[in-house]
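Changelog-adjacent note: as of this version, every example in the card shows the full chain rather than a window. The one below runs 165 residues end to end.
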Amino acid sequence: MLDIVKIGDEVLREKCTPVTVFDDSLHILIEAMYETLENADGIGLAAPQVGVDKRFFIVSLPDGTKKEFINPEITGYSVETNPYEEGCLSVPDVYHDVVRPSKVIIKAKDADGAEFTLKASGLMARVIQHEYDHLDGVLFVDRLSEEERAKVLRVYEKKNRRKRK
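Full-length structure tokens:
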């Protein structure tokens, strides 16, 4: 199990460095991230969310789909967009609708370094975009209007004050 860093930690605001070594240590980290994700009841987790400055994320959907995206690059977005309520393990207990493209095309590598391209829609496209943002230091709250972001962050602070008491 790994600790999930929270909003305010600098690693969440940095552009991550590419993965250059595909070895056992990467496989172990990925497995630890899956375990952490399952324990946190999430569906996506990016390396910076566990304090690792590397350009990759994992996805584990409710339908059983599990996939790693290492050094990903989104190469296409649909014109069609849709709103969907998002949350984030690094901004726990707050949710808000975020408008994103409904489909994406992504190129990445798997845990062994093999390249693949995936056309995604629905929940998979949503999670890919959310986690991909983490690799560039962007949180879902950054996709909101200034007013909505302030409101969401106030809720987050209020809930965290209660948890600390």
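Structural remarks: Residues 146-164 form the longest helix (19 residues).
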